[in-house]
Amino acid sequence: MSSRSPMSGPAATGVGSLPGQDMAEAVRLVMGELGERPGVPFLPELPGRGVGADMVGRGTSILVDLFADVQPSGWRITDRPGRDHRRARGYLSSDLDLLEEHTQGYAGPLKLQFVGPWTLASTVELQHGDKLLADAGAVRDVAASLAEGLRLHVEDVRKRVPGAQVVVQLDEPALPGVLRGTVPTASGFGRLRAVEESAARDLLRTVIDGARSGGGVGEKGGGALVIVHCCAPDVPFDSLRNAGVDGISFDLSLLSDRHDEALGALIEGGVRLFAGIVPTVEPGRVPQVKALADHALVLRRLGFSAQRVAQSVIVTPSCGLAAASPAWAKHALKLCRDTARALEEVD
Question: Could you tell me the residue range of the domain that residue 63 belongs to?
Answer without folding.
Answer: 11-344
